[in-house]
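SEQUENCE-TO-STRUCTURE ENTRY
===========================
What this section holds: a protein sequence and its matching fold, both as plain text.
Question of interest: how does this chain fold, as expressed in backbone structure tokens?
***
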Amino acid sequence: MLFGKKKEKEQRSVLEEEQMQSPFRTIIKNLLENKLAMGGLIVFVSIFAMCFILPIWFHQDLNYQDPTQKNIAPGFSFLSVPSDLKDNAEVIEFGPTYGVGVDKDGYVYEWGQLTKNLKKIPADMGKVVDIAVGQDHVLAINDKGTLYTWGFNRMGLNVIPPELKGKKIADIEAGYQVSVVVTEDGKVVSWGNTSAVDISTANVKDEKVKEVKANIQTAIALTKDGKVISLAKKETALDNVPEEIQGKVEKIALTDKAAAAVLKDGTVKVWGNNHNHIFSVPEEVQGKAVDISGGRNHLVVVTEDGNAVAWGGNENNQAKVPAKATNIAKLASGYYQNCIIKEDGSVVTWGLKGYLLGTDNLGRNVFYRILKGGQMTMTVGFIAVIIQFAIGILVGGISGYYGGTVDILLMRLAEVVGSLPFIPLALILSALIGNKVSDVGRIIMIMLILGFLGWTGIAGLVRAQVLAERNKEFVVAAKALGVKEKNIIFRHIVPNVMTIIIVQATISFATCMLTESGLSFLGFGVAEPIPSWGNMLNNCRSSEVISQYWWRWVFPALIFGICTISINLMGDGLRDAVDPKSAVDPKANER
């Protein structure tokens, strides 16, 4: 700024600027001026950071599977309780992807991801007083004691057994693919897919049952005299009910692998399998518990002062009780969701809201797998490029510097390797060796295959550059000073052509990623359960997935395409920046 006027910057051509600054600065300047290249760089860095940083917070076990969460579409509606129900709720229950509630007037509400059959709520139910929610079906009972059911029909699930006709209902429960009803006289009736869920009502044939709780595998019953009985036909860990609690139980709950009970003195006892440290009951609930409920891998207890305490699995924040969960009148937990109805009728929910990019056929979070798959695909591509360039620079540098017989032999070797059909050879090697090594060994093998079969083009490029540089003055001076030939090649000549090598490395990186994904897509690359962008697409080849579960292939394909395009744009921009004369305006000579 001079006397309030901005001094105009003198404009120079690229060639004039090049004379005043170092080649490196010229390359950076030209790269910054290339909008497409900078856009590609920003996009690639963003994807790279997302894949390598976000998994620190978004973690999922590679062996994780959950049949209750398979093929769920993207969205966050699992906890979207309708506004008309939020301050007027009587009962709320959760299924794996949806919720059902009843207000104080007996009207039924549904929300979340609902199938067509779940939306078909019977119109003639009258005033509903209780509901039970299963995997994809609902049980309801009205104020006259009439039982209703709707949702997906599996093994007669939508047909109420005739033995319940005229019976008064005391408790209803909807499990994974079964329905269970307790009559007022303490009898238990179950129906549905009993081959998938292990339930035998014969276990309580001579008992008067108060309530039943079911999970995705079996069920337990609480009798009117405070005893807990497993309903499984086969022996399970749930059969090991502690003798000291029998006759003292007030409430029961089930997770997938454990059972819990609230005793008359307010203490909580858990047995079964200690998954997710479920046996570690918080001290603050002992002697104060009045109600309990369970999801897939967590438990929630209401204490006598009206507060909630949760523990167990917390991968979906299902064990993280919000501060406003006070003055609790009723509690419900299902799968990975929780809900409390306060004394004033208002509703507080927490837990799994949904999935950003949906889930796959094994119930795995597509977003998490894209992140881990990006890590694997980019790591394989990066290491393969390092191997390629280590061999290519070595062979090309020696061949270009010495020439003659050495040049002929090395270039013929490169031609032989380059003439090998890459994909068929990689498939054969992977098929022969892949099943004999571990998952990590298979990944290392893919990196080596990509590296040892892909160096020939780089060797030719380095050879050509070394041939152009080897007779220049700095090389002659190094020879005159007695510098060793290997130092001349790798410490003097190669660094001078490194910019060209970096450009080629960038483009080869995208090529290696594409090749790895192609091999994984064909089933010969990175194997499940380790994700890569290629094997994620391998699981989406059926017409059913393409038409109905679009998110399983659209998102991996989209991010993979964006990543490779951004790398190529970045490489093209680097190539133009290294050769600034190619970017000079052709009209400059006319002026």
